[in-house]
Amino acid sequence: MDILRNTKRNNFLCKIIIIILFAILIIGLVQYIQKLSDSGFYNYLNNGHYKARNIDTPSKLWFNGYLGIFSRNHEFGYLNLLAIPFLLYIILLWGKFNRAVKAVFIVYIFSAILIGVKGFFNSRYAFTLYPLTIIAIFWLLYDFLKRVNAISNKNNLLGYKILSILLYLLIISLAIYSIDVRKKSYIYWWKHGNSLKYIKGPRIELIHSLERLNIGDNRKILVVNIIDFFYHTNIKGVMYSSLRFCENSENLWDRIEKENIRYILASDNIYTRPYYKILAEIMKDNLKVEIIKKAGGLKLYKVSG
Amino acid sequence: MTNIIFSGIIAFGLIQYNSKKNISNFKIFLLSLGLGPAFTSIILYWLLFMFPYKPDVFYFVAVLIFYFLILLKIIFHKKLNGNKNLINLKKSFYLFKQLIFLKKKNNIKLFLIVIIIIGLVFSIYPTFNQYSKGYLLKPLEGHDVQSYGTEGKIYYKEKTFKHRYNGEHPESGYIRFSNHSPLFPLLLTWEKIAGSIMGKDTDYYFKSITPFYGLLIVIFVFSVLSIKSVYLAFLGSAALFSSSVFFSKFFSYHIDLFRIFFFSTSIIFLASSIETKDRMQIILFCITSGFSAASHSIGAIVSGFSGLIFFLFYEDAMINRIKHFFFIIFSLFILGGFHYFYDTIWGTGWIF
Q1: Which among B275, B270, B289 is positioned nearest to B334, based on CA atoms?
Q2: Interval B171-181 mean pLDDT
């Protein structure tokens, strides 16, 4: 038990474990990128999905994807850029910070790596760290100014005050600039975010109209990634993901007939996504399907036969 | 009821353990506003898991009984100084008075500032009434939130997680996309259960979760930074809105603000528990980490890692560190981790 209570030994053990953890993380990250590059890493970028998410070039992939937490500024604001110098500030003054700050720093970096590697394709995941980043920036700014104040004497008090004002002005300017760059987005959400016109929006109306459609007991409706259908109605549907393993349009058509699918509900944009390539071939064939309703970016097709 | 009464009961329960006062009772109360819905959801999770296929009234009454038991625990609280089984009504009344009338000067300051912030947020909406009506009456939109909503609807209809762990719901044909824990969808299930008892079938409560947790994040950022300076806290909480994404979240329905609230609080309580070594802070770290894990898989992985970091950075005898570490792991398992464990072994597989 005395060995276990030895604080020096414990601290040494902690450091060793942290180094091992980081080594595992870095090796994992390198291997992951290596694996992607072996399997035609940059070919992924031509995917329409990546274009929609603004990560369709190598530089965008890095700045808006992997490092999105700090540099996806058009969405997260320009304050996040300050996280980088403040993280460096912790590294440079590592010994001066208490264990709590060090622990949060390690968890923050771990989360940033995890989100960067596994969640780079969706900015929602990078947004997870946003409130913590804001707290960290303001907390460390305060800490930095306090340290500057402590080492400055009465002679350069004016210098300290000017530095404080400049830094706070920088933060306020960055915040205002972030809002200014995206002011159209703010105005849009403010004016239309809760507009009552959506209550009877054409999309929802089309979905509700399906309940009045007499599909029949054995007949089914194929739902192509329209989750509204499952939430807003009580009709049984067939999700496209259950048919996605069909190799070509003939196989898919066989499945549609076998499952007795009589209607297809899909959005307008399925033609642009590689995931729906085979289905899109069928949709273009007027002999097989015909559009019977069209509203709010949705199309309802009737399957012939 | 869920956000105020249940949260209030949890706040009273937690305040009993706040002997060192490293965190003010008022801050615990503010945090508990976010804990109430999550606690209700996790109780419902265990009820549906252990007692499936029961009528609505069973789950409704069981949740009420759980909170009633916490109330009893508060009233019959055993004093730490050795007075056993003392009916501690006097202390409970004192805590109530302290919470409502906010005797401490700091609390009053914080309370006023929070009220001013909320007032400002509301007053800058010239058509606040229209905002809330529009927000709640607008049908639930968005791919992700609708899939969580559909899950919640299925749990309500089936009163079991059988289909959750099989991947597909044969009655509706719905196939689940994500392997995240069902803490968020269960809020809709809870609304439907309570609604069936009260004769109302709406999803207003489920839809209100996003802006509710958004406001809690603003208050949370404020209360963390207010430790340093009130002006800094004002600046920091206002700076949150410099992200158009954060602003837009107040107008759209999503799980994001719900999960981010628990994610952020868990990491801040990791720091405060290491720094203060206060039992209260460790309890709060365990609870928020558990809910962070239960609300999203990112939270699950980071919470596990945070537990390990707590073990490495908590300065105490190794035996105490091991004891705390197991307490954290146990809380993580009960509040959120169990789902991933079960799903990996008997369900649809590992998160990724």
Answers
A1: B289
A2: 83
